[in-house]
Write a structure and sequence with these properties.
The complex is a heterodimer. By secondary structure, chain A is mostly helical. Chain A is about 70% helix and about 0% strand. In chain A, helix 2 crosses helix 5, helix 2 crosses helix 6 and helix 4 packs antiparallel against helix 5. The radius of gyration of chain A is 16 Å and the shape is globular. The C terminus of chain B is likely disordered. The chains are: A mainly alpha, B alpha+beta. At the A-B interface, helix 1, helix 3, helix 4 and helix 5 of A face helix 1, helix 2, helix 3, strand 1 and strand 2 of B.
């Protein structure tokens, strides 16, 4: 069952990645491009815990860093999305947080991720970082992520539950409780 | 509390690996990995773009919803005209085909171009402005070739795989192109400033006087790499910068709509001579709208 779930998660991430690169920019929305991949990673963290969230975030981020038209600092998205998946898992896995609070949390993570990109990029002196644009990107990204989270988080949760009705303690962190 | 030691080990491990990739990538070791990924994911992106094209076109049509009625009327008139045209002789069709071939060879101002479709766009929160096109080394694309659209300069090729290439747009914060003012020899540097449809011009000559509405063409790099000469760049929309600062500064609206790119051409062979200002659109009159700058006229 875990193998099937692994494949399903990979397919899910790949679909989100392709949608984010081909469809979402077409909307021509102001500010940031809606970060579907980040919302899916956060949803996987919420549904599967911090270890799976971090793993999914790392895989998704690395793909985003490698797949054309990636041009910036390699590994930047991997770093940021790993943290996003982890924090989402720690905050929300197997806790009854309520729909609105969850949407707010994903939105906050998306906003924090933009700041994370800018800060890590700034540390490695990436010439692409334009700080004047960060407030606009943070605000729009938080808004778009909230809208996406309202649909994506329940769908991903349902998918994960369906593929693994009874969790078998595969989650690394759970042994240490 | 599930934030346990083991899960923290996993997190640390992944973060360290990411940071290692960042550091190694900064030293230019990641290009091979990106090329490999492009070989696998490039065709996937092309396929995905083809599948979602109806959706993309629909989104595009929503964005221009405001003027639908006028558009329908104009299109109906055009349709009638085209129907009449279609019924004309075989001669006209042969001639049209020849013209098409000529256009492909000569292109705009005798640039030989390879047409390509934009299939993917990098996320804006990555701060860069890059797109994937569905043409690569198999089509004769090389790094540092100029990319243009029917309206003007788009950017340059920064990475290429067998069937796809990555184009850095003019609006990318790391993009800089030599610009020349129409009808003069005054030059400046046109750079991306992070804004999706705005560029910053810095004149090299401090005494250069700029006017809103001044038009820019590419100056052309030595040997035509990466930018060929004579491609329309954009129009000055506002003057800025500190007077007495280093050089004159202005904001420029690019001719090409860099936020909604579709078909582009990659210049595989530059013209033998600089076409100078020949490719700029006709001087705007009240009837034309796409190149009109009357609203911001000086």
């Amino acid at each position: 069952m875990t193998a099937l779930r692994g494949v399903a998660v990979l397919v899910l991430l790949l679909t989100a990645l392709l949608l984010q690169l081909t469809v979402l920019p077409r909307f021509g929305l102001p500010g940031a491009t809606p970060d579907l991949l980040l919302v899916v990673v956060a949803a996987l963290g919420l549904a599967g815990g911090e270890v799976r969230g971090a793993g999914a975030g790392f895989a998704a981020g690395l793909a985003l860093d490698l797949v054309p038209p990636a041009d910036g600092v390699l590994g930047l998205s991997a770093l940021v999305l790993t943290a996003v998946g982890y924090v989402a898992g720690v905050w929300g896995y197997e806790r009854d947080r309520g729909a609105l609070l969850t949407i707010g949390a994903v939105s906050g993570l998306a906003a924090a991720a933009v700041v994370g990109y800018a800060m890590v990029g700034g540390v490695v002196a990436d010439p692409r970082i334009v700080w004047e644009r960060v407030p606009l990107l943070v605000g729009t990204q938080a808004l778009y992520a909230a809208v996406l989270a309202a649909f994506v988080v329940p769908l991903v949760g349902a998918l994960v539950r369906r593929l693994a009705p009874q969790d078998t303690g595969y989650e690394l962190g759970r042994y240490d409780r | 509390m599930r934030d346990t030691r083991r899960s923290r080990v996993v997190l640390s491990l992944l973060l360290v690996v990411s940071l290692t990739i960042v550091v190694v990538g900064l030293r230019g070791a990641g290009d091979g990995a990106r090329e490999g990924a492009a070989g696998v994911f490039g065709p996937l992106e092309s396929a995905a773009a083809a599948i979602v094209r109806p959706v993309s076109d629909f989104i595009g049509s929503i964005r221009t919803l405001g003027s639908k009625d006028e558009q329908i009327a104009a299109l109906q008139a055009e349709n009638d005209a085209l129907r009449t045209e279609l019924n004309t002789s075989e001669y006209a069709r042969t001639r049209a085909r020849e013209l098409d071939e000529l256009l492909h060879v000569a292109g705009l101002g005798r640039y030989r171009t390879v047409p390509a479709q934009v299939v993917a766009t990098g996320p804006a929160q990555g701060f860069g402005r890059t797109v994937t096109i569905d043409a690569g080394t198999l089509d004769g694309i090389k790094v540092d070739q100029t990319v243009l659209s029917g309206q003007g300069m788009v950017g340059k090729v920064v990475a290429v795989a067998s069937t796809t290439a990555v184009v850095q747009l003019l609006t990318d914060p790391t993009s800089t192109v030599g610009a020349r003012l129409e009808g003069s020899a005054r030059v400046g540097l046109l750079s991306g400033n992070g804004d999706p449809d705005e560029l910053t011009l810095a004149m090299l000559d401090q005494r250069s006087s700029l006017t809103v509405g001044d038009r820019l063409v590419s100056k052309g790099s030595a040997g035509g790499d990466p930018y060929v000469p004579g491609v329309p760049l954009g129009v000055i929309t506002s003057l800025g910068g500190m007077p007495g600062g280093s050089g004159r500064v202005a904001t420029v609206q690019p001719y090409a709509d860099l936020t909604a790119l579709d078909l582009v051409g990659v210049v595989v062979e530059p013209p033998r001579t600089d076409p100078r200002d020949a490719l700029l659109p006709p001087v705007p009159s009240p009837a034309t709208s796409s190149t009109s700058t009357s609203g911001t006229g000086s």
